Amino acid sequence: MNFVKKMSRSKSMTLLMMLDFFETNGISPNETLGPNMKTLESQIKKRINAVIAIIKDIEKHHDKSVLALI
């Protein structure tokens, strides 16, 4: 009941939103989230590492271009 109050919806609308969430994200109540969560964590780590590499590359080249102007 507390969740329904947090969502500020009726019980049936909250249940419909929950079912839609599970269907949209391909989550089944018959399987565990273990492998799915590890895969998601791995993907996020890869994206974060890619962003870090991009930022480092920008910093590296930006400093050189600024020093060249001086």
Automatic annotation (TrEMBL):
Q: What is this protein called?
A: Uncharacterized protein
Question: Which InterPro entries has this protein been placed in?
Answer: BfmA-like_N
